Every structure is written in C-alpha cells, then in structure tokens.
C-alpha cells in the first residue's frame, strides 16, 4: 500500500455548476468550501460531502461534453454501459429504505430503486445532476 497516496477529489463537469453544487448541498448536506466564477473560462465550485470533495465546474470554451447514457438495471447488476467511471458510491449507516424515501421527498429521482445485491447488502442508485449516478450501499 502506498501511504503517500490519498483520494483528493471527484471532478464533475456540469451544465450549471452553481445549481449542481446547491443540489449536493441540499441532498447530501454538503458544504461549499470554495467557489470561483471564472477558472479557465468556467465557474468551479468545491463541495465537501462528509470529507469527500466534489469539484464541480462548468463547460469551458471549446469543450463539447457528450451526454452520459442513463444508468440501466440489468438482470443482476446496474451499469451505464460505458467505459470509464460508472458511478461513485456512499455507504449509508442506517435504514436505506427510509433514507431513500427522504430523498424522494426532496425530489430526488432514483436511477435504480433499492434492492438486495447480495445477502446483507442493500443498494440503490441516485440520479444526480448531469447524468451522474451515485450508488448508496447499506451493509448489514
């Protein structure tokens, strides 16, 4: 193990960086820790969610981001069916079904409803802004 290496951030490109940052704050109790209106031609906002930094920036001049395929539920798994990062995940230490109900009351759409992936492991996928999928896992 390389103890000199640690996770720093997840970088998201957003159609509306300010709206996406607000969504992560509202839905996951995130905190905006930095905001720049014009960093290399686009807004960039850092949102900290329980120690994880989500770096959210807008479209830069010359970029033409492609749409992400929506999350699909297959027979025994879920996937965007694309190369690269498929999703990022959080562990939820509580009643995941109740938490999902709370998220839905906030207007969150579930990309994949909670289901038992394997005995003792319940998970779901939240549809976040800009085609991002967030897996939430409840372990026994």
Structural description of this entry:
- The protein is α+β, with helices and mostly antiparallel strands and 140 residues long.
- 16% of the residues lie in helices and 42% in strands.
- It has two helices and ten strands.
- The protein is globular.
- The relative contact order is 0.18.
- The mean pLDDT is 93.
Give me the secondary-structure category. alpha+beta
Q: Give the beta-strand count.
A: 10
How many strands, what sense, and barrel or not for the largest sheet?
4 strands, mixed
Order of helices and strands: EHEEEEEEHEEE
Shape assignment: globular
C-alpha Rg (nearest Å)? 16 Å
How helical, in percent, are the residues? 10-25%
Report the portion of residues in β strands: 35-45%
The whole-number mean of residue pLDDT values reads 93
Helical segment tally? Answer: 2
- Measured distance between first and last alpha carbons: 27 Å
Q: In what order do the strands lie side by side in the largest sheet?
A: 1-4-3-2
| Poorly predicted runs of 5 or more residues | none
Attribute tags:
alpha+beta; 4-stranded mixed beta sheet
How do the strands and helices of this protein lay out in sequence?
Blueprint: E1 10-13, H1 17-28, E2 31-39, E3 42-49, E4 52-57, E5 72-73, E6 78-79, E7 88-91, H2 96-105, E8 109-118, E9 121-127, E10 133-139
Parallel strand pairs: 1-4, 7-10
Antiparallel strand pairs: 2-3, 3-4, 5-6, 8-9, 9-10
Task: Give a quick summary of the entry.
The protein has 2 helices and 10 strands, in the order βαββββββαβββ. It has 140 residues and is of the alpha+beta class.
